[in-house]
Amino acid sequence: MLEELVASLITGGTRLLTGAQARWLGCGPGREQRVYFANHASHVDFILIWSVLPGSLRRRTRPVAAADYWSRGAVRRYLIRRVFRGVEIARGGFERAHNPIAAMRRAIDEGSSLILFPEGTRGPGGEAQPFKAGIYHLAEACAGLELVPVWIDNAYRVMPKGVPLPVPLLCSVAFGTPLRLEAGEGKPEFLERLRRSLMELGNL
Amino acid sequence: MNMREELLVLAVLAGVLAAASAISLVLRLRAGGQPGPVLDNLSARIKAWWVMIVLLGAAFLAGRHAVTLLFAFASFVALREFITLTPTARADHFALFMSFFVVLPLQYWLVWTSWYGFFAVLIPVYAFLILPVTAALSGDPRNFLARTAETQWGLMISVYCISHVPALLNLDIPGYRGRDALLVIFLLTVVQASDVLQYVWGKLLGRHKISPRLSPSKTVEGLIGGAACATALGASLWRLTPFRPLQAAGMALIVTVMGFLGGLAMSAIKRDRGVKDWGHLIEGHGGMLDRLDSVAFSAPIFFHLTRYFFTP
Question: Which residue among B93, B279, B281 places its CB closest to the CB of A167?
């Protein structure tokens, strides 16, 4: 109840601040289970995607979030666990005890869609950084999974890295054509194909 | 405010708009499946005016403070469109934050409290001096002058100029007490009518383009026909104003010419940025600044002429 209220305050406030609109260019706002992967340059990125999704989709779409960032402080913990219902994963190498792919896989098996930032961290805005391997391992683990590129425009100007205050600017969120891991496709080619599809969407 | 008169005028305007909607519908039906860009533009404008008239009517009903809040929101949306199209740097972030969340609310608070002296200088003096300093303290000198000028321009056009519309309600004109909302209606009606009349005359007779590189739809014929008609319209509305008929005509002419020049200057910015519209407030139908550019340029002049000649 309270979570719903907080969620609509956040999405409503974001839409008021950024006038954000979804541009469904390569697919529609369908009920298919998907991984939305997006460029990342601002704290508002995930909230923007979440805000422009229709309400029924939003409830089934969970962000993949860095546990080290979101577990600091009671407010962040409340937001990520109760409001956004994020999938918290540990950042870093593969030798960690907690396997991020398994956590994402569990969320997929439960029927959720995911929002993922394969650059792993916020970049300076503009061009997307090279992708981390996680999204490849996830696609490998979940056969036939639909991966939808999402280009977020202007968010890095709303709230650039290292700045605590937002400036209201018009943003848009473009959804591209879904991709799948092809049979026999290697990790580097797959990651490069995803990144290219995202950059092409950004240049439209 | 004396409500009845304003609402009567708005009802008449709504009637005119209803007629326009009907004509546009007939034209659409006659065009069949493909209405074309001209008709699309027409119905977009009509739709925007319906929104304007309903919002203004509701605001006038709720009182002068609601009118102030309405224009504060319009300024917010306009400034957002302006800054979005402006290449700002990270070092401007704090100055931009201040523009949106300190300067803008303060400017409208000064309208709200009728503090004219501060209202007139807040942005041209205080914001003009303080905001570049905050940007300079961030330590990035690249394009500093251009960035500073763009932020200041955004504030002037989107906040300072537009705030002069609700500020009309603060003018204490002898013998006009309680009717000042009509002055707002007079200004907006003349500006918007002149926009559309220039467009219509231009479509009918337009040959000589005034500035093909900036705005291909603006023609000498459109300007003369539109300005003449809007001036006549303004004169015919003199009973709503504190002006005599000839004075009302003169005011309408000045407002029309300023609106035209404002549209041209704002087109120059859009051309430079390579966009056709400022935003997509109503999806696919342009932004707030596309509808308010001529108002922004005419409102301060209208305000000051009225203040200088008609208040003690």
Answer: B93
